[in-house]
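Below: protein 1.
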Amino acid sequence: MAKDSKQATVQTAPAPPEPAAPAAAPGEATSQPDLKPAAVEETPFEALASVCSVLVVGLFILTFLAQNFVIPSGSMEKTLLVGDHLVVDRITIAPGTAWMPLVHYREPKRGDIVVFLKPGEPDLFLVKRLIGIPGDHIHLRNGIVILNGVAQNEPQAKLHPEESPKDVYSPYVDDFPSVSPYGEQVTSEWEVDMPNHIQGDDLVVPPGKYFMMGDHRHDSLDSRFWGFVPRENIVGRPLFNYWSFKTPDEQMEKTGIGQRIAWMGHVVLHFVSDTRWTRTFHLVK
């Protein structure tokens, strides 16, 4: 299409040719301009922004996706040992959220090992095995869990080799809930509420609640002592053990600065010898 003849045009005059560089004399060195692009230096603000981005991503992962926990007691032996460090999935069985619609959620199932906030103590994380879901009828006879009328086969809850049923038998623990909790380490709230959920010989799990027990049944303060776990208290489930270090049962109770420094020194000195290498990346189940 022909251009409008009335449209103004602007032309530039050709630039005069640049003078040629003088030829170098024989044997004289010549210099050529450096054609490499100059390195771009990162400004302090850009460096700070990069660090903040990494921190934000890490905080998001630790808050919403996965988190590490350390086992402080022997209530889950032999499944979990004191000093096991776990990576916990905080998505799959945590209460669903509308702002993450693409994430797969499922309800907690019997047999799941679960990390949750202890009822009545919102800052205390515990890990136990889920025994009963809403509507389940539960009681124990001689330490055997009877779930909805069926005795459960629980190899993970077998007695330790050095234990015998006669030596470790405890009426309240092994024949729950048929024995009075009087004199046991039962919270006052659970002592009052427990009778409301007993039907015949069974404890019935109410809607929205779960019944938890440790695998080491005679060394576990669990739902038998403080009651049901609300659905909203469930945080996630352990995936694998990324590091396990031989740790005394009472170590986690030593919170003094001097005690912590001494323990850190012990870990450094005995890292190789006291790390349970066979449990590294051990799947939790």
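Below: protein 2.
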Amino acid sequence: MAKLDQKRTTLFAALASAAVVGIAWATDALRRDKAQRQIHRTLVDLLLNALTADDPVTARHSRRVADLSYALAESCGMDSRELSTLRVAALLHDMGKIDDRFFYIIHSRKPLSPEQRNEIKTHPHTSAHILEPMEPLHPGIQGIVSSHHECWDGSGYPRGLDHEGIPLAARIIAVADAFDAMTQPRSYKEPLSIEEALDKLSEGTGKQFDPALVRQVENPEVLSRWIEVARRGLEDERHHLAHPSPAEAVHEVAGAESE
């Protein structure tokens, strides 16, 4: 009996030790995972800051597009890994515009020349190239970013992809990008109302946009989140138009000089 009790005591001690080691390992793994996620968020923030250092308008636009895209993607049933990749892609989809040659094109108030249009069409490919080191962390991010100006009917760029040949995340970003552009004011234009913007999305159904995604925007849960993002953005943009930062004032001068 004494030997049995000793074996039990030894077994319990071993199990207790294993539990302590397991808890310590799990705690350490959790700590390392948290640290890795923090490093990843910092990297994304650094890239976004590099893109928008002299362009706070684009910074705000990118964050809204990410919020809009996430809400729509979540309603489409994307899993957490896909959602993470989509959000990073939405934040950095215009990374290629960091090139100085795009500055006056982006902020011009005049219609673009054919040469400028051809030039601006290179930015999705450039964005994808810049984000190549992130591909192991976010598989497919290059394809998403390079395709966010493709159209459902094949009339987009840079490769003329169509229908499901365009990554779902890119199709989502395209709808969100257009909605934000329409619903936010700029110094040279007034925004469309949310209702007008939704009508424009409907007009683009089957041409520029995936019909299923445009219908999904009208889902009450998605629409309420989109309205919230648009209204919050409207307040921010109105405020910054009334009280421009030095960088935004530079954009105003650049826009006036291009006229």
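Residues 10-30, 253-259 have pLDDT under 50 and may be disordered.
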